[in-house]
Amino acid sequence: MTVDWIAVDWGTTHLRAWLMGGGEAVCLRSDKGMGGLAPDEFEPALLELVADRITGSTPVIACGMVGARQGWVEARYAKVPCKAPGIAEAIRVPTQDGRLDLRILPGVSQDSPADVMRGEETQIAGFLARDPQFDGVLCLPGTHTKWAHVSAEEIVSFQTVMTGELFALLSTGSVLRHSMGAGWDDEAFADAVGDAMSRPQAIAARLFTLRADSLLHGQTPATARARLSGLLIGLELAATKPYWLGQQVALIGAPDLCQTYATALSAQGLAPTLHSGDDLTLAGLTAAYQTMKDTA
Amino acid sequence: MTVDWIAVDWGTTHLRAWLMGGGEAVCLRSDKGMGGLAPDEFEPALLELVADRITGSTPVIACGMVGARQGWVEARYAKVPCKAPGIAEAIRVPTQDGRLDLRILPGVSQDSPADVMRGEETQIAGFLARDPQFDGVLCLPGTHTKWAHVSAEEIVSFQTVMTGELFALLSTGSVLRHSMGAGWDDEAFADAVGDAMSRPQAIAARLFTLRADSLLHGQTPATARARLSGLLIGLELAATKPYWLGQQVALIGAPDLCQTYATALSAQGLAPTLHSGDDLTLAGLTAAYQTMKDTA
């Protein structure tokens, strides 16, 4: 395979590089995420993955936390309302190794309420490259779930909810961890979503009942886990109701997690579509590369 | 000092023993909390603190997680509505060292909503020993804040809110830690309490703004910390409104934390009284000892 260009998704904890050429995409992974690297360690980390696969000058297009202030080089935010940043907004980064012709795509910010994203905007670009007419709401579940209102090919506004990080902290780092285990309970999940949505003001009093129901009533670890997920997703849906109510919603992310959100949203009468986050990251980077080639 | 008896508060992370005699109380501390001990390690841990201070058979009265299923010996919960458990409900625990005449006070449970406490019931007993006529609500802020409705010397119902643990997890273990620092901001705290109380359904969308406001608008670490505290305490007050609304409220715990809660409750028109948690633990254990002596 001749490598025409390299697509890079560089997050806080992971680095992925796709070697692109002849209609193929070969994905390489490393755990050298942006969070553990000093500025001068980014180029070696990338070369470790790709050095023996490239020959001449090779375009590299990257998105994600690599462009944060603590990253390789800062790629400043585009500000909503705006198109998802493309190659025109990318910054070129000088490299030691002359074969790397590197560009980093910026993130997107919002002044009020203050919010930022880095990486998700490229998934949004990928989504809109496939469906430019889409008018509605994109939900990108993850550690920090993003909700974005998209219209006329622009990101109009967006909102971040820390549901994934809260779930991880509570299920592994809090007293609730003693009550959690593998498995799932559909009914408990649905009940908890409904409970949190209808009485979000009571959420602070609900969490500890997950522990107490294990101690007093033999609640199973799978039920406790599904209830915690349901409470937190229900609280998220209560907070983001102005986003999704009466809207067309597309879910973008890991298939299992998207399915969990789809279940919760379906109970609210919505019929969200599901899209692979990995596919759309690559689609967004590819759209940027295509524009670069077309305008070269 | 002749040691008449020993008062013990044995929590998950710490052990405190007060040597009691001749109107004095000498407090000894150890980090051998219940969380790190196997059942046969409790007696040595206690003796390490007190062995060279006692001679003949010495009453020891203990409260806290030492009586949990994973503790020294399980002291089963009393169930609300009930008096705060006293010496009559304590279980005697056999020891290797004949000098220890040990009793552990049980915790309190509630069937629905499921809830449990261990240790706080002894503070409540201490509070009621001083003020038996109290009719109202006790709030015991901490890792797991307890709200207890008390009437006619009984605990009528109670509710646990994990505010302290959430604050610790979010301020030290989440992405928000990058925006937090020492210091405080009274106005930001008050605004955040009001925001969370008036729109609890939006809380899930508020947390990440603490990070974004640092990145985009130069918010100080002290302001971020006060806002996080305010959002979480505001959410707690929204959840516990059925407890405190129109009630006489007494705060029991660490003075700084009680003052923070008092500030938030005062903005709601309440005039809570403040009480040292340590003093009331000792008062509760002392009341148990007194009953034991009086009925001997």
Q: What's the name of the CATH homologous superfamily of the largest domain in chain A?
A: 2-keto-3-deoxy-galactonokinase, C-terminal domain
| Oligomeric nature of the chains | homodimer
CATH topology category name of the largest domain in chain A: Nucleotidyltransferase, domain 5
CATH second-level architecture of the largest domain in chain A: 2-Layer Sandwich
**What fraction, in percent, of the residue positions of chain A are helical?**
25-40%
Element-by-element helix/strand order of chain A: EEEHEEEEEEHEEEHHHHHHEHEH
Name the overall outline of chain A: globular
Average pLDDT confidence of chain A is 96
Task: Give the number of domains of chain A.
Answer: 2
User: Largest beta sheet of chain A: what is the strand line-up?
Assistant: 3-2-1-4-7-6
Largest interface: A-B, 44 and 44 residues
Low-confidence stretches of chain A: none
- Name the structural class of chain A: alpha/beta
* % residues in beta strands of chain A: 15-25%
Radius of gyration of chain A: 21 Å
SS field, number of helical segments of chain A: 10
In the CATH scheme, the class of the largest domain in chain A would be Alpha Beta
